[in-house]
């Protein structure tokens, strides 16, 4: 048996195409062009790549992209002042502060300073609380992408046994909330979990968000399961190059699972598409319009 590879790249491209149609409609009918401000503090090479791809995708979808680069030495007060300006700017509907921030800055304070209606990363405590209580919320983009990828192979997730390995505020916890909202039966595992392989083997849907290269082996996977690999681990490759691997031992998993996301080309592209979707939704809600059902 060889698993179906869930093509995150083409699913993301299709979603971005739908978003672009809605953005054009919004602009024609209401004169509203969604705008996304991305704030990058410091010079982390991986962050610069992510920010560059986000800006490109924003413009390709017909939205406005506002790029704010701050030096590594930026003070917290200066960053908070920028966020205040973006909160008040009517052309900005979404604000994304790229993490990690330089060490002198309190990330929690910065996240809480973003207006919840413009919090397209879905990290503000108000959005986290609304998500957890089943109220409409801007939810984090990576978990949104994971659920869409799982739903690309399951018409419904209701009643399925889902295991999420990882409990970060960015991925594991909000993913668990979204899966509960989809009526899956959810287990969240972490570094203190006992019998992790046995717990993983229960999963019809296995989500790996750990940050440990190829930790989940083939014999941790239930035959016929769907595996969504969130991990991005940079490894030394041939000729001094780096290569990306996920948290799942992909070749082994291919022999057991029914469907699996590749790394790269799985969750990563869907995350960016969901960021655009959140920006579109935030722009609609900000203007008192119903967000499109896509
Ligand atoms: P994180 O904040 O470091 O959280 C990692 C989680 O994994 C923690 O909950 C930790 O448990 C758990 N863990 C660590 N070692 C474990 C072990 N041996 N057994 C079981 N659980 C273990 O990381 P994150 O931000 O959630 O990101 C996870 C991965 O996803 C990273 O590779 C990251 O690069 C990737 N990522 C990808 C995207 C994308 O768009 N594709 C987006 C975000 C993140 P404790 O809580 O007990 O410490």
Set down the secondary structure blueprint.
Elements: E1 4-5, H1 8-30, E2 35-41, H2 45-60, E3 64-70, H3 76-88, E4 94-97, H4 107-113, H5 125-132, H6 141-151, E5 161-165, H7 172-181, E6 185-189, H8 196-201, E7 205-208, E8 226-229, E9 233-236, E10 242-245, H9 250-254, E11 259-260, H10 267-286
Helix pairs in contact: 1-10, 2-10, 6-7, 6-10
This protein binds NADP nicotinamide-adenine-dinucleotide phosphate (NAP).
List keywords for this structure.
single chain; 294 residues; alpha/beta; 6-stranded parallel beta sheet; 3-stranded parallel beta sheet; 16% strand; globular; binds NADP nicotinamide-adenine-dinucleotide phosphate
Descriptive account of the structure:
By secondary structure, the chain is α/β, with parallel strands linked by helices. Helix content is 40%, strand content 16%. It has ten helices and eleven strands. Strands 1-11-8-7-5-6 form a six-stranded parallel beta sheet. A three-stranded parallel beta sheet has the order 3-2-4, with helices on both faces. Helix 2 (45-60) links the parallel strand 2 and strand 3 (64-70). The longest helix has 23 residues, at 8-30. It is globular, with a radius of gyration of 19 Å. The two termini are 33 Å apart. NADP nicotinamide-adenine-dinucleotide phosphate binds at residues 142, 165-168, 170-172, 189-193, 196, 209-212, 230-233, 267-268, 271. NADP nicotinamide-adenine-dinucleotide phosphate binds next to helix 10.
């Amino acid at each position: 048996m060889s698993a179906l590879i869930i093509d995150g790249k083409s699913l993301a491209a299709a979603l971005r195409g739908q978003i672009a149609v809605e953005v054009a409609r919004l602009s024609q009918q209401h004169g509203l062009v969604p705008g996304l401000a991305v704030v990058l503090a410091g010079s982390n090479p991986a962050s610069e790549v992510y920010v560059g791809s986000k800006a490109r995708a924003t413009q390709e979808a017909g939205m406005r992209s506002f790029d704010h680069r701050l030096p590594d030495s930026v003070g917290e007060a200066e960053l908070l002042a920028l966020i205040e300006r973006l909160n008040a700017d009517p052309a900005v509907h979404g604000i994304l502060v790229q993490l990690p921030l330089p060490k002198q800055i309190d990330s929690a304070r910065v996240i809480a300073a973003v207006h919840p209606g413009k919090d397209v990363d879905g990290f503000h405590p108000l959005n986290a609380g609304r998500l957890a209580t089943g109220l409409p919320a801007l939810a984090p983009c990576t978990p949104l992408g994971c659920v869409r990828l799982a739903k690309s192979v399951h018409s419904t997730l209701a009643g399925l046994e889902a295991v999420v390995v990882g409990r970060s505020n960015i991925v594991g916890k909000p993913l668990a909330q979204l899966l509960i909202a989809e009526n899956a039966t959810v287990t969240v595992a972490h570094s203190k979990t006992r019998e992790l392989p046995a717990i993983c083997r229960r999963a019809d849907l296995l989500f790996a968000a750990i940050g440990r290269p190829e930790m989940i082996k083939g014999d941790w996977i239930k035959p016929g399961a769907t595996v969504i690999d969130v991990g991005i681990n940079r490894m030394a490759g041939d000729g001094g190059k780096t290569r990306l691997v996920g948290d799942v031992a992909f070749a082994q998993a291919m022999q057991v699972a029914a469907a699996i996301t590749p790394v790269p080309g799985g969750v990563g592209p869907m995350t960016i598409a969901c960021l655009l979707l959140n920006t579109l939704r935030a722009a609609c809600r900000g203007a008192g319009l119903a967000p499109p059902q896509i």
